[in-house]
């Protein structure tokens, strides 16, 4: 039987994968994907804990996190398109040498 601890371990593994992705990526698009993995890991934990305690507040919070993540990606992808059109790259190393 799959219990709460299994879901929390899955959530921790997903969060770790996302954290490694955030720390190691040089491409802004991959950085957004890694952030989404971290948010989804938190959602898995919220939903599992909420189900375990028979309380809907964790599931509602996970729903709002999904809504915020969707809006964050929409705005972020818009900014990425503008950056790519202006500079021709999404590499973080190229942005560190930009001049104002």
Describe this entry's structure for a reader.
The protein is mainly α and 100 residues long. The protein is built from four helices and no strands.
What would you say about this model in short?
The protein has 100 residues and is mainly α. It starts with a helix and ends in a 5-residue tail after the last helix. Helix content is 81%, strand content 0%.
CATH classification, class level: Mainly Alpha
Element string (H = helix, E = strand): HHHH
Taking pLDDT < 50 over at least 5 consecutive residues as the criterion, the unreliable ranges are none
Mean pLDDT: 90
How large a portion of the residues is in β-strands, by DSSP E?
Answer: under 5%
Give me the count of strands.
Answer: 0
Helix content class: over 70%
Task: Please outline the major beta sheet.
Answer: none
User: Distance N terminus to C terminus?
Assistant: 58 Å
CATH architecture: Orthogonal Bundle
Task: Describe the protein's topology.
Layout: H1 4-24, H2 28-52, H3 57-87, H4 92-95
Helix pairs in contact: 1-2, 2-3
Protein traits:
100 residues; Helix Hairpins; 0% strand; elongated
């Amino acid at each position: 039987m799959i219990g709460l601890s299994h879901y929390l371990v899955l959530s921790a593994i997903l969060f770790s994968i996302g954290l490694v992705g955030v720390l190691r990526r040089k491409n802004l698009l991959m950085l957004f994907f890694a952030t989404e993995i971290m948010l989804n890991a938190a959602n898995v934990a919220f939903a599992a804990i909420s189900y375990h305690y028979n309380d809907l507040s964790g599931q509602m919070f996970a729903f709002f996190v999904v809504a915020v993540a969707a809006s964050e990606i929409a705005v972020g992808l818009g900014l990425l398109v503008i950056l790519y059109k202006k500079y021709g790259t999404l590499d973080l190393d190229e942005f560190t040498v930009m001049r104002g």
